[in-house]
Amino acid sequence: MRPKHIVLFVFSCLVLLGGVCVLFPQQSTLFRWPTLGEVFGKPSEVADTLVLADTLETIAIQMSSDSLRLDTIVPNHVPDYSYEPDTVFPQAALAAFYRALRCADTSVVRVVHYGDSQIEEDRMSSSLRRYLQREYGGGGVGLIPLHQTIPTLTLSQRLYMNDVMQTTQQGPKRYMVYGPRSLRRTTNQYGMMGQVAVMNDSLVAGSEDLILKLEPMSSKVATDTYFSRIRVFADTTIHYTTSQLEDSTSSAEIHLSGRGDVYGISLETSMGVMLDNIPMRGCNGNVFTQMDSMQLATYFSETHTALIILQFGGNSIPSAKDESYIRSAVYALRLQVRFLRSCAPNASILFIGPSDMLTSIDGELQTYPLIPYMDHLLSQMARSENIAYFSLYNAMGGRNSMISWQQKGWAGSDGVHFSRCGAEKATDKLIKWMFPN
Q1: Could you tell me the residue ranges of all domains in the chain?
Q2: Phi then psi dihedrals of residue 362, to 5 deg
Q3: Under 8 Å CB-to-CB from 40, ≥6 apart: which residues?
Q4: Which end of the chain has fewer CB atoms at under 10 Å, N or C?
Q5: Are 93 and 348 spatial neighbours (Cβ–Cβ below 8 Å)?
Q6: C-alpha neighbours within 13 Å on the C-beta side of residue 80
């Protein structure tokens, strides 16, 4: 094709599209095209107008084509859920935790940090742990699973079976309360980490004799590098066995023999602060009521847990279509808070809300529209349940703040997860909020 023909073709397409914009200035519920003002860079006159398709369900029913799914039918404009930050100050809600810290030089203060993939690799947890241990004493990384399938930035774990190092897909059979349903077990005994490794499982020959080798991931000296005792939590009643070590211990080799459930291993000291990092990838945070309450209560009591941190909400956002979905998700989280309070009545509870997250709207990366609404409802839930609430979304800067965090190297390209540096920045904001003076 000659150049003049190409130019003529492109010009004809532009004229045709311009005609569509002129003849049909209003947006269709099913199709989306720009106005002439948007084409030439002018803001749309209805940019701040909410045009909700109140007949989405009717439209979806009338469509006979299977190729058009319900989630492709979206409003023309994004709802603007703007709320003033409903701050829940930590002083009153974290009173029990603050009291426990004042005695950390003579006793153990446990912090259990549950969360979704935002805290994988010990992100956020490690920064908070090191701050607390530096200020109030203590050492060790706290609780770890028998077989660590997701490497962390603090501890190297290698599991051997029959003298062969096991990959993430090998090792003793595991059951989990979250993740694929194929990993569920017939009972609700998943332990305090929501996962359990079964030694001497009939499907895994050799799992009755294991060797676990532990050493720091980095040569950099840190408070959680050193520990003075190891506790192995096993059996259905969360029975634990303690091995005392020298205070300067930074690596260990654990030999395990026999059969039974292993719920976790703790590297810790006999006093000061210990913080458990317990990530649950893909979890909405509504799984605790599916766990054995006696197992949880026993662990919280035996380890002197003074603070339970719940960091969830982000996994509910991508599938949320409307406000009712968010209300249901927050109600489910309220039930989890009440359940955990019944298991640890003497512990404080802190809920960390979702971070800013990006999605493509009309070809532009923007904050998921329902994040501010969920943040608002979570803060209200926290206030009514007398627990502390930290708005990570507001701490980042609110709407579209994830974009600037990406530009600074503080977040990944997915527009959801923090980088390791970003996790430290987010934790710094959390620490300043928890300890303002």
Answers
A1: 30-77, 90-434
A2: 55, 40
A3: none
A4: C
A5: yes
A6: 7
Token readout for 392 is 């990570």
Distance (Å) of CA 227 to CA 135, 159, 262, 307, 308: 17, 20, 20, 21, 22
Give the model confidence (pLDDT) of 274-304 as tens digits. Answer: 999 999 999 999 999 999 999 999 999 999 9
On the CB side of 282, how many CA atoms lie within 13 Å of its CA?
A: 6
Question: Count of CB atoms within 10 A of residue 107's CB?
Answer: 12
pLDDT at 28 over 80: no
Q: How far apart are the first and last CA of the chain?
A: 73
Q: Which fold has domain 90-434?
A: Rossmann fold (3.40.50)
Residue 261 contacts residue 235 (beta carbons within 8 Å): yes
**pLDDT (tens digit per residue) in 327-341:** 999 999 999 999 999
**Residue 346 CB partners (closer than 8 Å, separation 6+):** 96, 306
Q: What is the C-alpha separation between 152 and 382, in angstroms, rounded?
A: 30
Q: Give CA torsion, residues 92, 95, 98, 103, to 10 deg.
A: 160
For 10-27, the pLDDT digits (tens) are 667 666 666 655 555 554
Q: Which two tokens stand for residue 167?
A: 């990959």
State the DSSP code for 147. Answer: S
* Nearby residues of 71 by Cβ (< 8 Å), 6 or more positions away: 321
Instruction: Report DSSP state, residue 231.
Output: E
